[in-house]
Amino acid sequence: METIQNYIGGQYVASQSSRFAPVYNPATGKQVRQVVLSSSEEVEKAVAAADSAFPAWAKTSPLKRARVMFKFKALLEQNSEELAKLISQEHGKVYSDALGELTRGLEVVEFACGIPHLQKGEHSANVGTGVDSHSLMQPLGVCAGITPFNFPAMVPMWMFPIAIATGNTFVLKPSEKDPSFAIKLAELLQQAGLPDGVFNVVNGDKEAVDVLLTDSRIQAVSFVGSTPIAEYIYATASAHGKRCQALGGAKNHCIMMPDAELDMAANAIMGAAFGAAGERCMALSVAVAVGDEIADDLVAALQTRISEMRVGPGVVEGRENDMGPVITAQHKASICDYIKSGVDQGATLLVDGRELVVDDYEDGFFVGPTLFDGVTPDMTIYEEEIFGPVLAVVRVPDYQTALTLINRHQYGNGTAIFTRDGETARQFSEDVQVGMVGINVPIPVPMAFHSFGGWKRSVFGPLNVHGNDGVRFYTRMKTVTSRWPASVRLEHHASSFTMPTM
């Protein structure tokens, strides 16, 4: 059985731990490899390697750091097919979705390639007589990323490209459910010319996480996962004097206005609700229909489209499936429990995905697309994040009720409105208490040069990921105020007739 080990100081390091976690192919339900669950001492070795590499890397010019990012970007593109298949194998999402995830991560790498511009700082001349002030955006030191199973490529690449490009070193703790991609990232970074120790991967569980949250050499921690864990990460890291950005759960609503373009909206909601089997923090899991007429039309359109969906393994010959399995048998059981609770609490179950069986993949962790109507705000399937292919339709009489519903929810990650009316859309974007808003766009994930982050219990910490917030998170400002006394000027210098270079 292949064992996924750690990558520390530029090389694979065999763990001395006796603890391992199984890694499955969710489509077959079979274990394909195992991953080591590192001891505290092994995590400390990774931190030590990053700490040792920091001084030289921090002094490396931004241009040279950017060149590593450019080479890394090229290697990701050259290996995209292999990498996407690896994501599909361990996560289960269909190949095109895996390729899309890789592309969104690549966009942050492209953003990091511009670090010489992004890290310039500011300058003011003559703030006083003969006095100038300028600021430096300097790296923090060793940074850590703790990432979830649902985006083994994209979420780590939300973090480390900007951290490394700004002069920090990095320790990544990926999900133990699909850890292989993180090791591939380390290999490609080494091929791109990144010095040993600048990027390290440690596999593990809470024991490994707690070291990253408490070790005094770690200066900043980035996390994406569920809200209870995000709260723990933020509280613990902050108590130990670290910067922390901890992104938590979501319950993303869309409003379906009576004037919405039905076919466009229904197609958009389908992809947003059931893509990646609903295992996205930006998945649309609640459709709020304003009026019974548009609700009836939407439900009918969704039922028709669900009946045409293809569910199966992520990588197949010929026509691709629309949706793959969920990550584990335990997660499948959790989703099925949520579906049962919806039925028990009085929602109308229109499409039940619990009994789906995929031919030749009977042991896979499949849950079919599931549709509820008549969902109310007091139901568990409305209140809690299911993280699966379950869509709830809530009926309301008017726009204001829909807006109030969204604003009262504990989560505020992403939202959308489907309408042809510009005034309503503009009012919604101003008044909704959610961090990312889509106007006829179902998954409003910003491009890499903007920042990603929600509101309320969907995020803990003042700075979001990537974009300008990402650069600010991984740097600290130093302001220099200077005055130069009169001095003897050198009148003679040796001549140089070549183009000046670094």
Distance between the termini: 49 Å
Record the strand order, biggest sheet: 15-16-17-14-13-19-20
Total strands: the figure is 23
Main β sheet profile: 7 strands, mixed
Average the pLDDT over all residues and give the rounded result. Answer: 95
Helical content (DSSP H or I, runs of 4+): 25-40%
The Rg value, from CA coordinates, equals: 25 Å
Characterize the overall form.
globular
- Beta-strand fraction estimate: 15-25%
Structural class, by secondary structure, is alpha/beta
**Low-confidence stretches at least 5 residues in length (pLDDT < 50)?**
none
Say what oligomer this is: single chain
Fold and architecture overview:
The protein is α/β, with parallel strands linked by helices. The protein is built from 16 helices and 23 strands. α7 (180-191) links the parallel β9 (169-173) and β10 (199-201). α1 (40-59) crosses α8 (206-214) and α3 crosses α4. It is globular. The two termini are 49 Å apart.
Summary, kept brief:
This protein is an alpha/beta fold and 502 residues long.
